[in-house]
Design brief:
The chain is an alpha/beta fold. It has helices at about 15-25, 40-50, 65-75, 90-95, 95-115, 150-170, 200-210, 240-255, 270-280, 305-310, 320-335, 335-340, and strands at about 5-10, 30-35, 55-60, 80, 120-125, 175-180, 180-185, 215-220, 230-235, 235, 260-265, 270, 290, 300. It is built from twelve helices and 14 strands. The strands form four sheets. Strands 3-2-1-4-5-6-11 form a seven-stranded parallel beta sheet, with helices on both faces. Helix 1 packs across helix 8 (about 240-255). The structure holds nicotinamide-adenine-dinucleotide. The site of nicotinamide-adenine-dinucleotide has 28 residues, from helix 1, helix 5, strand 5 and strand 7. Nicotinamide-adenine-dinucleotide (NAD) binds next to helix 1, helix 5, strand 5 and strand 7.
């Protein structure tokens, strides 16, 4: 794959920044695009430190059609990985238009710029959220799809747009990757997840409790039909996820086909298991209180990852212990995230 140019949208975000390093390690040239609506320019400094290469980067909003046309004309990418999106489920319920405009408008613009420029290989960040309330576990790719909030709708509608595009023109090769629950950080501790405000996801919240930024964690529901009563999710190390993107691009370049796959470990862990593993990794107490269930939360959700291993030759390597150790290293080295070091 060497010397091919891959354009990453949402490039300074959590998953994309780890994927950037994995793509470079695979010999690809990366061009990043982000508007910093949910990330920091400091990420670019960290990527340069880690890779020894000055990042090629364009600050642009993917919803800005003229800007995207300029970026595509200038860099002529062979493929695109489209990460840019808003991702907070709760916020999507209160601000649905922002989500539809950004997540769908951005995807449409990127596809149109690709079409105009003759680029037909796209990796799309989808989510396990497209399975709604799963009827069967583990969840395989042919499970029924539904959305239970506007964020989920944007992913489901995004998948529909891309399916229609493939039907209309077989020269499009699209990998739709349904991520389960990305956690952890690069082993250097230099990049990781840096949520703005109150974290929406469990592990960054636990990390902030461990480091002393928050007094305790709320466990939403301990009366689910699971082994210990708390919710079960399929946590996947972000570096495994990053490698999944390399495998997906390789597949698009080699096979000239399209694919939709789950990226998960296939292993579910409960909230209490995550708390215990994090307490062990950090050697800190993680105080928690049990709160009522949150509307829309499901008891358990974990992937059947077989298809990704058969079609892409990819499988997750890291377990929960490593996810917690790497997350903790990142949290300790950056107790206030990227911004504090950028402003220092
Ligand atoms: N983290 C998860 O739990 C998870 C799970 C499933 C799917 N996903 C999807 O993966 C992708 C990446 O998620 P993440 O966790 O890295 O999120 P993130 O917020 O860290 O990264 C997204 C990046 O996109 C940028 N962005 C947003 N809108 C933009 C726009 N209009 N123009 C340019 N840049 C824009 C943000 O500034 C941010 O840097 C998203 O599409 C998300 O929906 C994430």
């Amino acid at each position: 794959m060497s010397r091919r140019v891959v354009l990453l949208t949402g490039a300074t975000g959590y998953i994309a920044s780890h994927t950037w390093l994995a793509l470079q390690a695979a010999g690809l040239s990366v061009v990043g695009v982000d508007d910093f609506s949910n990330s920091s320019p400091e990420v670019l400094t960290r990527l340069q430190t880690l890779s020894g290469v000055a990042p090629v980067f364009e600050r642009a909003n993917v919803c800005d059609k003229a800007a995207m046309q300029r970026v595509f004309a200038q860099h002529q990418p062979h493929a695109v990985v489209h990460f840019a999106a808003f991702k907070a489920v709760g916020e999507s319920v209160s601000l649905p238009l922002n989500y539809y405009i950004n997540n769908l408008g951005g995807l449409l613009n990127v596809c149109e710029a690709m079409r105009e420029q003759g680029c037909r290989k796209l990796v799309f960040s989808s989510s396990a959220t497209v399975y709604g309330v799963p009827e069967q576990l583990p969840i395989s790719e042919d499970a029924p799809l539904s959305a239970i909030n506007p964020y989920g709708q944007t992913k489901l509608m995004g998948e529909t747009v891309l399916r229609d595009l493939q039907v209309s023109d077989a020269s499009w090769n699209i990998a739709t990757l349904r991520y389960f629950n990305p956690v952890g950080a690069h082993e250097s501790g230099l990049i990781g997840e840096d949520p703005r405000g109150t974290p929406n996801n469990l592990m960054p919240y636990v990390a902030q409790v461990a480091v002393g930024r928050r007094p305790h964690l709320q466990v939403f529901g301990d009366d689910y039909d699971t082994a210990d009563g708390t919710g079960v999710r399929d946590y996947i190390h972000v570096c495994d996820l990053a490698d999944g993107h390399v495998a997906a691009l390789q597949y698009l370049f080699d096979s000239g086909r399209s694919v939709t796959v789950n990226l998960g470990t296939g292993q579910g862990h409960s909230v209490l298991e995550v708390i215990a593993a994090y307490a062990h990794a950090s050697r800190r107490d993680i105080p928690y209180v049990v709160a009522p269930r949150r509307p829309g939360d499901v008891a358990a959700c974990y992937a059947d990852p077989t298809l990704a291993s058969v079609v892409l030759g990819w499988r997750a390597r890291f377990g929960l212990e490593r996810m917690c150790t790497d997350s903790w290293r990142w949290q300790q080295m950056n107790p206030h995230g990227f911004e504090s070091s950028a402003n220092r």
